[in-house]
């Protein structure tokens, strides 16, 4: 009698443990990947895009360069990028606080260099200086525009829900950008979460449509940043194209 009771109690406890495990696993499946702890995204995508931005800066005319000699800013950017890659060569994953500050410093340097080039180009166009040929002007404007898309993609990527390292840890419950997969999780794989290329797409569409498309900004800072990008893109495109058309005439 005693043994039967003990066996029944053991079976009940075992069944209860199995039920608890099933409930825990079901709960994990209900939580989307972008809200739980996951692995960091591959490093190579953001590295390749940053190298593209650095290469584009080397093609700018000397009058639009912030720091001389012309290779000074690109070398600084490459040194900062090398530090990031050395610390996390394969994936963008949490390491130390200084690593995040290093990434922010790199984005600031690229932003400063391209912002200076954009301001100088706009000033030249307004004053009717430094643009005597249409093709070089369009190429210069295109370089600044493309770099601007990369710069804002980096800012979106770095600040959404605390940045890529915070997103890996699932620290922030509320998103700053609402992607389609977040609204309709049934159309995406269960392990989907935004990566750098998603933010690059967001930046490109915002720069071409001058407004949100299928990715909606939710926080105030994301709305202001998208508004700033649209303004810069609009001014650059309008002035460059207008000046080029005037030269061709």
UniProtKB/TrEMBL annotation:
Keywords: Membrane, Transmembrane, Transmembrane helix. The keyword Transmembrane helix applies. It comes from the Bacteria. The chain crosses the membrane at residues 66-86, 98-117, 137-157, 225-245. This is DUF1345 domain-containing protein.
């Amino acid at each position: 009698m005693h043994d039967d009771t003990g066996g029944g109690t053991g079976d009940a406890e075992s069944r209860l443990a199995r039920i608890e495990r099933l409930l825990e696993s079901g709960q994990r499946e209900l939580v989307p990947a972008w809200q739980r702890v996951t692995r960091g995204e591959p490093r190579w995508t953001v590295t390749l895009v940053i190298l593209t931005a650095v290469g584009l800066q080397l093609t700018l005319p000397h009058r639009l360069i912030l720091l001389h000699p012309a290779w000074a800013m690109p070398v600084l950017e490459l040194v900062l990028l090398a530090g990031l890659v050395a610390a996390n060569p394969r994936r963008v994953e949490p390491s130390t606080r200084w690593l995040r500050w290093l990434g922010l410093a790199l984005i600031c340097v690229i932003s400063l260099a391209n912002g200076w080039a954009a301001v100088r180009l706009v000033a030249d166009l307004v004053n009717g200086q430094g643009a005597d040929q249409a093709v070089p002007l369009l190429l210069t404007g295109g370089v600044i525009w493309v770099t601007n898309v990369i710069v804002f993609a980096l800012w979106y990527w770095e600040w959404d829900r605390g940045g890529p390292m915070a997103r890996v840890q699932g620290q922030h419950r509320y998103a700053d950008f609402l992607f389609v997969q977040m609204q309709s999780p049934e159309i995406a794989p269960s392990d989907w979460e935004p990566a750098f290329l998603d933010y690059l797409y967001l930046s490109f569409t915002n720069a071409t449509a001058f407004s949100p498309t299928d990715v909606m900004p939710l926080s105030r800072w994301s709305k202001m940043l998208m508004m700033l990008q649209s303004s810069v893109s609009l001014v650059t495109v309008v002035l460059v194209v207008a000046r080029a058309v005037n030269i061709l005439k």
